[in-house]
Design a protein that fits this description.
The chain is mainly alpha-helical and about 150 residues long. Helix content is about 65%, strand content about 10%. The chain folds into two domains: about 40 residues, no CATH class; about 80 residues, Orthogonal Bundle (Arc Repressor Mutant, subunit A). The protein is globular.
């Protein structure tokens, strides 16, 4: 039973919408995790860390990776250690602060990430295959309004 099943007709439409959004997110994420495991023998957190590093070719400090991924430093350290052992990332000491280092993708890691990102994009496109392009555009625009309203409230 998914989250949406918790809602009843007497609940506000907003609550039912929220639960539907969560249910859709969980279904798609579960599918992405399954594909990543089956096709690349990796996990979504590893993919996410590599995605952050792809966006910052010069590398990122561990605390910045933690902040961007919204996980603890310990989680990032464990994933980084695994990826480093596999030759997918490297730690580079900063000349300005010999105690600190940057983490960046190796050429091997960059090549693997590009393959994973291409497949990931195709899986996400497939997940929304039941919608027409106009429906995708409308949903994107409406969720943008929700996001903007929320940002203005906080």
């Amino acid at each position: 039973m998914d989250l949406e099943a918790r809602a009843h007709a007497e609940h506000p439409d907003e609550l039912r919408l929220w639960l539907r959004l969560l249910a859709c997110t969980q279904l798609i994420e579960r599918d992405l995790r399954t594909h990543l495991r089956a096709e690349f023998d990796t996990t979504l957190p590893r993919f996410d860390l590599m995605a952050q590093l792809e966006r910052a070719p010069e590398g990122l400090r561990m605390n910045e990776l933690s902040r961007r991924m919204m996980v603890t430093g310990g989680n990032v350290t464990g994933i980084t250690d695994q990826l480093e052992r596999e030759g997918l990332v490297e730690r580079v000491v900063l000349e300005s602060d010999r105690r600190a280092f940057l983490v960046r993708l190796t050429p091997k890691g960059r090549k693997l990430f590009r393959s994973m990102a291409e497949a990931h994009e195709a899986w996400v496109v497939d997940a929304f295959g039941g919608l027409a392009p106009t429906e995708i555009a409308a949903l994107y625009q409406l969720l943008g309004k929700v996001k903007q309203h929320y940002l203005e409230m906080t």
